[in-house]
Amino acid sequence: MPETRNLDTEIVFNDHRLIPVFRSTTPELRVEVVDFWLREGALRNRPIAEQRAFELAYLIRDRDQVLVGVSTAQLAPAPGPDGRPAYFLRTFIRPADRTPGLPQRVIRETWQLLKRHASPDGPQGAFLVGENPKLNRPGMKEQLARRGWDYLGQNAKGLPVWGKPFSRT
Three-class SS string for 28-97? Predict the structure, then answer.
């Protein structure tokens, strides 16, 4: 299936639709996402899932309109001297739908969506924390670097952290 593209509209990637919902979720949508996370085991704590449902950036649906993944963006203080906040990105795609290139595409589109919505005095960029061991593989590290993500070291839990400022393309 060919890709279609307009800013802040759906993106078709193979058999999946990426639907932007940043700052535009509904109570019904948040319930659907919380149920999805709990059912798939992505999150096990309902109150945390309910809180994260307010951080949705993209929904990922399959050809039957079934929710198969999401990306979220949590606004939080960023490490660094200027104290400006940044987004911390998370992506979950159910295992059966993790097709080649889809996770990377979701990360890229989420960063671009957030950049389009950022004001000059707003968030400085985005961070990824390598909670998924696959993000620690040499090939994935190379892909992230090619896409403008800087490896920043490890967080207090020993997980790798990457950052990409909105000043980049």
Answer: HHHHHHHHHHHHHCCCCCHHHHHHHHHHEEEEEECCCCCEEEEEEEEEEECCCCCCCEEEEEEEEECHHH
Query: Domain ranges in the chain?
Result: 11-165
Q: What confidence tier does 138 reach under pLDDT thresholds 50, 70, 90?
A: confident
Which tokens hold the place of 106? 């979701």
Write down the pLDDT at residue 127: 94
Among residues 57, 53, 50, the alpha carbon closest in space to that of 21 is found at 57
Instruction: Look at 1-15, 26-40, 101-115 and tell me which has the smallest mean pLDDT.
Output: 1-15
In this model, does residue 156 exceed pLDDT 60?
Answer: yes
CATH architecture of the domain 11-165 equals: 3-Layer(aba) Sandwich (3.40)
User: pLDDT band at 81, cuts 50/70/90?
Assistant: low
**Phi-psi bin for 124: left (phi > 0), alpha (psi -120 to 50), beta?**
alpha
How many Cα atoms sit within 13 Å of 42 on the Cβ side? Answer: 23
Angle at CA of residue 94, ends 92 and 157, nearest 5°: 40
Taking the alpha carbons of 9, 48, 92, 42 in that order, is the dihedral positive or negative? negative
* Sequence-distant (≥ 6) Cβ neighbours of residue 108 within 8 angstroms: 147
